[in-house]
What we know:
Blueprint: H1 3-28, H2 34-51, H3 60-78, H4 84-104, H5 110-117, H6 121-131, H7 153-156, H8 159-171, H9 175-186, H10 191-198, H11 202-224, H12 238-251, H13 254-263
Helix pairs in contact: 1-2, 1-3, 1-8, 2-3, 2-11, 4-5, 4-6, 5-6, 8-11, 8-12, 9-11, 10-11, 12-13
Amino acid sequence: MSSRAERNLLIESNLPLVGYLASETHNRATHIPRDELAAVGALALVTAADAFDPALGVPFGAYARRRILGAFADEMRSMDWASRGIRKRIKETVAVRETLTAGLGRTATAAEVATAMGVAKDVVLEALGDAARTVTTLEDPAARDVTADILLPEESALVGERREVLEQAVAALPERMRRIVQSVYFEERPVKEIAEELGVTHSAVSQQRSEAIRLLRDALDRYFAEGAAPATTTRVSAGARDAYFTRIADAASARIAGVFRESAPA
């Protein structure tokens, strides 16, 4: 088996892991779309397969899981809604609740936490709600023992096609977006470094990366759609999106090209 065939087999057999982790993470951080997590995770899986060294003695499933969760954490930080002040309030509220819980021998109520902190009950409820949306949930022990042989029905079919479509979709991105995606997900370079190289702001790189992920998501949705065309998530114009689909069709196999040519305007 050639090295590329081995790499592709790793990707194909572990795509269900991406779906599982994306679902688990979305359940704990519902403000991040599951499909966006899946697209980010699929890219992380590809880079994990490229970088994997069997000589290290680490199972690929465990190695890929860490890379995928790391990519999720990066994605969540790039979309972070919580200011330093909000995070401080969350930390203080959770600490008080845990202290009271330990002392009472039961879970402390929001009213009890509010009394101890000298704040309104609504403030505590808001902080505890925000706590459920933080990045720390990525290290929940429930996700640590996931192995590569977990197959979800919706993820287990056509995994080879998913890999092929994803690779073609990355290659067809506009030049700057493709460069950013390759730098962030394949070369694992810091956004600050990429911004300096491109002569743009950190925010501009993050925005381009996010738009690239939306385009990749649209491409995957378009290919695997059943029935009516799926709603688009990208913010680029319809003409730019259709040109993107055409570039995928021009470079892809006949099977993939047929789907994207059908989606192009007449």
